[in-house]
């Protein structure tokens, strides 16, 4: 949901603080507005309930559990997201996580930004 700020808002969910800061800086340089980084499922759900982002970057394994609930919420709100995780495809995880584009850690920040740009173009509303 775009506010008066014309920049695209990205919810950044990453439990590794250094990775989160690095990605946040790369997103800012690329012109995105970032909500986060958030390192917990609970924190990500609070952010999501406060404001629906345009896009999201989601780590699978967070400090307080897996991000399956967040993936379902993002899907229900029609928020496109990319999974950025050391996790590999696992059929025991929710379908929303399985269907999202996957960037295996460690991915270069430029690769994450390029994937978000493509996701935004492919799903522009």
From TrEMBL:
PROSITE patterns: RESPONSE_REGULATORY. The keyword Methyltransferase does not apply. It comes from the Bacteria. The modification 4-aspartylphosphate is found at residue 59. Residues 9-120 form the Response regulatory domain. Pfam families: Response_reg. This is Response regulator. It comes from Methylobacterium terricola.
